[in-house]
Design a protein that fits this description.
single chain, alpha/beta, 2-enoyl-CoA Hydratase, Chain A, domain 1, Rossmann fold, N-(1-d-carboxylethyl)-l-norvaline Dehydrogenase, domain 2, 3 domains, seven-stranded mixed sheet, six-stranded mixed sheet, disordered C terminus
Length: 607
Amino acid sequence: MELELRYEHDSNGIVTLWVNQPKMPVVVMDRWLLSQIDLALDRLDAETEPVTGFVLMSASDRVFIAGADLNEIQGLGDTELDAYLAQGQQILNRIEALPCPSVACINGAALGGGMEIALACQYRLAAEAARPYPMGLPECGLGILPGWGGTQRLAAVIAPGHALGRISTGRTFGPAIALRYGLVEAVVPGEQLHERACRLIEQNPKPFRPRTIQQNAEAVQKSLVWAKRCRTRPMRRLPAADRVIKSVETGIQSGLDAGLTEERQALVDLRSSAECQGMLGAFFARTGQLKKFAKSLGDATPAPCEKIVVTGNSMTAKYLAKRLGRKADVTVLGEGETKTDGQMYIAAAGVVRQEQLSLLRSVSAMAPDNAVIVTCSPVLGIGDIAESVTNPERLYGFVPGWPLGKSPGCEVIRGTETSDSAVGTAVALCKAVGGVPVVEYGGGPSAMVRMFRGLVGQAWELAIASGDPGRVDRCAVALGFPGGPLRAIERIGLSRVASLFDDDGQALFGGIEQVFADATSSAASDALAQASGQGNESVTWDEVEMQLLGALADGAAEAVRDGVFGADCQQSPTMENLEPVWLVATFGLSMGAWLKDALLSETLKRM
């Protein structure tokens, strides 16, 4: 194999390696790239001219290195996977042992293996960005753990407590937090990354061996005690967290090589587990939706949306105004205010139907004829809404997942007259809020509402049965729900929920009408406190898990049965061969949902 990566050795002795994968949309650490980096290190070792420093750059303008190729990992047998991991560990050890200073220039997302190779360098610089990009080790959120030294090196670079907390939960860093924690030396303008890296090498010409967790053993041991205590809490039940702790303990007791061996073996073991396979399955299904959605639109040209007008006083309105304001000129209108030169008008009045219709009529009246109108109503059918606007071809529904900013699914609800251009605009809107788009067709409550109302109804019943409402919410979060369903009731407000129970029972929280019928101003916490006094603490965690997931699956089945995605799920190009696992995972759960094979099997039966 020949070296295909860009390799430069300048007159100051600094070697710069540019990682790239022209045939891939982003740079991933697959076996080809690992071999290329190994060849580059061979060339560096063979240099006859002095080498004073090593700079690792990404040729991609989107990411640094997005992590390992999960599809490739899924296709390997256990022996092949072990060899693949061992190869990566050996290459990163070579970088760490270079006889010159090394700098990783992080210009975008650095996840998993991308973060691990950066940790093998002596220094790290991050690029400034208008929108923060993630850096870190998210593997535990997929049921596995870092396999190229992440458990050994992160706790040696930053405070061990922060490192263990981030690794065991899969949480990532933005550039500003990474700088605060000491993960990167500086955050600089992107165009200055290489220049600053060379300057850093010139200012620090002598190489040094990075600290190991053995050298920081006392602080790491204290953090391990804390991590083990947290493992008793329901919110820390990701299956890989125990193996993270064991890998770190091995590294402290027996050194880096032993820690790497334990880390590698743990990843091989976890990859084959039912929990991991379920979590990876949900991940693959969900991440494929944006590509499928964009492809289904063909050559449709999105309408311009540089000038956005947001109306309404709901949490959704505030959320969208904040997220979209980073990339567009956003105007938020107060009551009675108008603006007639917008390109996109978003009507987000909350969950009360009459408020939604009234706001939509006023928006339709002020919007120019060529503007796109977006309704954020999860309850009203798009056909009913279209009757309230002129030019219904420019109207579509858009409902971000709940809790806002945490649930990945974003519903794009298309009416019979909605144009391809208007739907194409939804792609840009989904990208702007970081969501995964799901195309639906109007006709009553959306899929997310159908799932969410069953979930909340079941959570309420479990709160009464268990005598501990907080316990039900904690269990939901432990399962992987983006937030507690009972807490969601409190945030929305019981008076607003109660106002939904009309029109033949088509209400947001079906199944608990009587509970809310008399609730007008009481806080949800008061109602839950009264209900908890009737409880029976014999309800087990397994029962709570099964019933919550089952309620969500029932709602998903109802959405499919009632034709939310088209009469036979073929009207919507993105919903062909609809996979229930994907549907449930996208709207209601994070990947941590699939902790038990029994839960997955039960969900499939319900669908």
